[in-house]
Amino acid sequence: METTIIDSLNRKFKGTSPSEKLAYFLDVYRDRIGLSSSFGVEDQVLTDMVSKIDNNARIFTLDTGRLHPETYDVMDATNLKYNRKIEVFFPDTSSIQELYKTQGINGHYESLEKRKNCCYVRKIEPLQRALKGLDVWITGLRADQSITRTEVPLVEYDDNFKVIKVNPLIDWSEDDVWNYIKENNVPYNKLHDQGFPSIGCAPCTRAVKDGEDIRSGRWWWEDPEHKECGLHKK
Hints:
Radius of gyration: 17 Å
CATH topology: Rossmann fold
Strand content: 5-15%
CATH superfamily: HUPs
Distance between the termini: 19 Å
Structural class: alpha/beta
Number of helices: 7
Order of helices and strands: HHEHEHEHHEEEH
Oligomer: single chain
Shape: globular
């Protein structure tokens, strides 16, 4: 993807609302675009926006096999509210069996390498399958979520997955997100009410204390600069 095209798209949509950005990409790319959802609060905002623009637009999720029960609850509530069945991608069975054989069920706590192995099997490979045939990937990234995301643009080309990545909420604050959730009666994961600003797999996510970084509950035993699973470069 030429840098000039990405730069042009970033200039084109500077200062526009997330809904305006989504409407453009959903119209231009139609069946070659998809929103990935982890059912976190940002993804719920985008699900609501996308569904209002085109309720047939593709939305998918990755079921790692180790999600919180509350995540399944909001998945069900979302399907019911928007009258859809969000597409689910699971890890490859043989890869999971090999992972357990080589590093056990909780080997991800033992080293960064083992944790990334687990993330690859449970997230990266399923995402590769989910993105197959797509040109555009919509995500819920926000710049103030993490020190690894402060420089993420609205539109970027993801070399790992060979797609254009669109981050409609990149300039939104946490307050912006929650105001939208409340004003539009959007279902959300109840773990957010229990001190979980960021929610992933159950073994790798915990609540955070007041004043802590919002990503501090993810892979809390690792250094902050390592706190990505590989889905996003930043």
